[in-house]
């Protein structure tokens, strides 16, 4: 039986969130994908799944979104719950790239090209057993 890899997408822009959901669902065969449209919902999902013993393996997060924090704060919170969680930050502001890199996370600048985001997801999901279709 193949391992299920839990992925959380935290993105406030509906079209971007829907595109990421489709990408992960179509390109990766063993992903269980969840989504949140703001920081607070994403933090709640991280905590709920952790409490059930089903912590997320991969977090794909926008950097700036509504709620009580942003992507870097979400990264920090996710790592408190699961030390080996992989994170990919996204932003239209390239200056965030080094901030994610300093935390051992990936970064994708918006607007992104489909092959670039698929490769980042593959690279950061692979250590957890994420497999491409």
What is CATH's topology name? Rossmann fold
Whole-number mean pLDDT: 96
The CATH homologous superfamily corresponds to Response regulator
The number of helical segments is 5
Which structural class fits the helix and strand makeup?
alpha/beta
| Approximate helicity band | 40-55%
Distance between the first and last residues' Cα: 16 Å
Shape: globular
Stretches with pLDDT under 50, minimum 5 residues: none
Q: How large is the radius of gyration?
A: 13 Å
Multimeric state: single chain
What would CATH call the class? Answer: Alpha Beta
Report the major sheet.
5 strands, parallel
* Share of β-strand residues: 15-25%
Strand order of the largest sheet: 2-1-3-4-5
- SSE string, helix = H, strand = E? EHEHEHEHEH
Number of domains in the coordinates? 1
How many β-strand stretches? 5
CATH architecture: 3-Layer(aba) Sandwich
What can you see in these coordinates?
This protein has helices at residues 14-27, 39-51, 71-81, 97-101, 114-125, and strands spanning 5-10, 31-36, 58-62, 86-91, 106-109. The model has no long low-confidence stretch (mean pLDDT 96). It has a single domain, classed as Response regulator (Rossmann fold, 3-Layer(aba) Sandwich), CATH 3.40.50.2300. 41% of the residues lie in helices and 20% in strands. Helix 1 (14-27) links the parallel strand 1 and strand 2 (31-36). The protein starts with a strand and ends in an 8-residue tail after the last helix. It has 133 residues and is α/β, with parallel strands linked by helices. The protein contains 5 helices and 5 strands, in the order E-H-E-H-E-H-E-H-E-H. The protein has a 5-stranded parallel sheet with strand order 2-1-3-4-5, with helices on both faces.
